[in-house]
Amino acid sequence: MRSTLPHALLSLSITLALCHVTTAHADDIDAKVEKKVTALSGMNVDAQVPAAGTVDEQRLSAGVTTVMSKQEIDAVPTANIADVLSHLPGLSSYSDMHLGQAATGESEYVTIRGLDSSYNAYTLNGFALPETDSSTRAISLNMLAPFGIQSVKVSKTPTPDMPGDSIGGTIDMRTPTAFDFAGDTYAKSTAQGRMNDLAGHRGLPDKGGMFQQEVAHRFGASKQFGIYAAGYYGKYDNAAEAVAPNSQYTPIDPRQAKATDLSQAGPLQSSQYKYSVYTNRIKRYGGNVSLDWNGETTSLFARALYGAYDVQGEQNQMSARNQGTTQVLRGGYFNTRDIKEKTATLQLGGSSAADALTLDYGTSYGVGYRNVPDHVEASLYGAQTPGQFQFDLGNPTFPSLAGTPAALRNYVYNLSTDSFWKTQGGDAGSKDTRINAHVDGTYAFNDAAIESLKFGVAADTSKRNAYDHPFTHDDNNFVYGGPFFGGPNYPSSAPGGPSLADLPGRLVTRPFGGRYAGPFKLIDRQWVLDQAVPYKYLDDPNGAGNYTANDYNANTTSSRENIFAGYLMATFRVQDLTVTPGVRYELTDYSSTAWRSNGDDATGAFVGQGRRYGELLPGINLNYRPDELTVYRASLRRSFSRPAFGLISGQTTYSIDDISGQVVGISEPNPDLRPTTADNLDLSAEFYDRTGGLLTASAYYKRLSDFIYTSQSSTGNDSTLGGNVPTGTVLTGGVPVSMPENGGDAKIYGVEVALRKQFVTLPGIWSHLGVAGNLTVQHSSAHSGREDHPGSTWLPRAPERMYNADLFYHDDRLHADLIYNYTGLQLIGLNGNGLDYYLQPMKTLDFSATYDLPYGIGVGISVKNLLDHATFHETSGKSRRYLAYDPGADGAYVETGRVYMVNLSYTF
């Protein structure tokens, strides 16, 4: 059934398109319609060099392309460009909870047709961007606010003149220039106020705002010079609530206690659950400048961009634990969730024409940072008490203690039960310094058979560094009042610190909307930091031991990657058919160094490794244009994706249970990862009309080899853990070990349909109404090559359905959009126990409206997540029955609430 559904949808789409195109070609469009069209940002069917971000650019492109204009970007109420891009056909956005990022309510990464975000190529004005997260090739879009983006172009069938590491496609974000505006001088001031309703309802900081200033000016005798500058600053607070299991699932039936495939073991249970409240103070600021000169045969530009994203966040947690079969324990946990990301890039280049030859050239220098400074964790415990918690799973997204005896409920909700025990911490970060340059030439022929020949060379060098320094020897703990401070080594059952009730902090109003039947306290952040940060990197002869070179360097890596590329492509025209064959070659030279311990828990050395490989990437695009409003396309190409640096030579991290010292999770790199390669076939039909409407239908097929996925399996006893492991740590059988691996072969195929239509032929105000939408239906299968997954699975991050629906009203003054976004079920990672990790469908409904008053004043309101859906929902297995037990993520079901925004602008 699955295999026939995409074909049926494609047939239906083409049928609808043929019906639509009949009206699009009607010659009797009356004068009233023509008058309305002049008020639209419609297309100019005669354009040969289309403006960026217009429908013309999409229509006249050589491959399957989707563009997003500044007006469409502004219609999505968010401060994050990743959330904006998820409204394009076949695109989705996501964040995870391994650094609590999903608790901000914003997305960080973007996928094309559900392929992992690392399978995309990301550029800014055509230049490659530096990366900030060493664990992925994807660009963290936190730092790029939509305020400074003029348009976005997504190429799903890149031609050989585009980057070859683009199995999903390429995403090019363009910044404005002075020549993008109608007048010689343009200036606009924009202010926004915002409020997070979940934080407000919990009595937590909930407000913030943003200010942006844009200025553009063209000057010179013939207005050949242009300057554009923009800057923005935003700061706001939000809160989130999250629930997750705190122990692995086991069968309820004791006869199945030794089952290895839990998907076949019947009802399951977790003996522990954790409840977290996140608070975040988010700052996003930056700006961009563009200097341009347009001469008769030469144009030159200099562009600079700076973007910063700064989250100061905390997680406060209560855990309810069944300890064995006769005791229970209340646990308390706190950690900072700070992330500081910055990117800066300078781009220089131009274009020169001499007769039939045009040369485009440029170079860029960029730096990207991602730091997690002073990451401090704190634990609170007290004495165990007899009994067992009864977890009510009637609501699978919020396991409650409704069936637990009153005495045990009082024990777990009493803020005096736990006392402050210990802290630990570390500093982590990564940096990418990237330089690239390119020269492209296009030679135009007068011959009717061959239109042009295009060729080019490019070079890119990238230097990356990553580190994770624990505060203490072997990542041990600062026990409150313990050995480091001259006192005894207090156990968790009798901690030496003050009780949670006596710690500085504040109470949350009606936590979890009243479902949490007790007080919930947030500990003062600075008080916790003061227990650890002043003592980092110091020797502790009374407890943890002396701080060594192995402690500081164990998770430190550096790498260098040089990429050299060249391509040749030609464009042939036979009447209405255009054929563009070409070939690209990319040579990758990679080397890295990582710390290797000598095994004495003190010394070691940096050792190197490297790899050199080339990829030949042929491709061909065909475009048939029977008239100026219709395009049929076909594309066949080969592409690949390099493994991320952190996946090859990154750090090994451990999740360790406070009480038992047991390792409960290990995450490690894989130096043997190979690049993923793919063969891609795309077919599409596109129909446009003179009123700015369009209908497109596409079918695609991708066959991948050596795809990369995150796997989880179990390990046996091992006394040589490596890295930094606290003294007394225990490793026993069944510990989940996560690492990236190359799978076998995989394939993905599907169809996309997109529609946009304003009803300009209707009378009165109805002529300003319109609809837009897109639907992607696809199916993927992948063979991991793992013994515990002998059959096929889905490709990670490849949902079977994605769609958007937009109901809008646009006239000369009022622009209003109601936008619904749906991203279906996604596989996140494989698990050796038979319950793979899945992300449940994500749904958002957003509303925005702006009204232009006289004298250049504009006012607007926006609501993000109008229906108050969860922003992250990870499960063990495909169903919603079991929240995911993921040792690296503190939150399986995350709610962040609605966001209300008020906008005011002045254009002069």
From TrEMBL:
Key words of the record: Cell outer membrane, Membrane, Receptor, Signal, TonB box, Transmembrane, Transmembrane beta strand, Transport
PROSITE patterns documented for this protein: TONB_DEPENDENT_REC_2, TONB_DEPENDENT_REC_3
Main localization of the protein described in the UniProt heading: membrane
Motif annotated as TonB C-terminal box, chain positions: 891-908
Signal peptide feature range: 1-26
Domain TonB-dependent receptor-like beta-barrel: from-to ranges: 388-866
Membrane topology, as annotated: Multi-pass membrane protein
Keyword flag Signal: yes
Domain annotation TonB-dependent receptor plug: ranges: 61-170
Subcellular localization, as worded in the UniProt entry: Cell outer membrane
Similarity comment: family membership: Belongs to the TonB-dependent receptor family.
Protein name, as recorded: TonB-dependent receptor
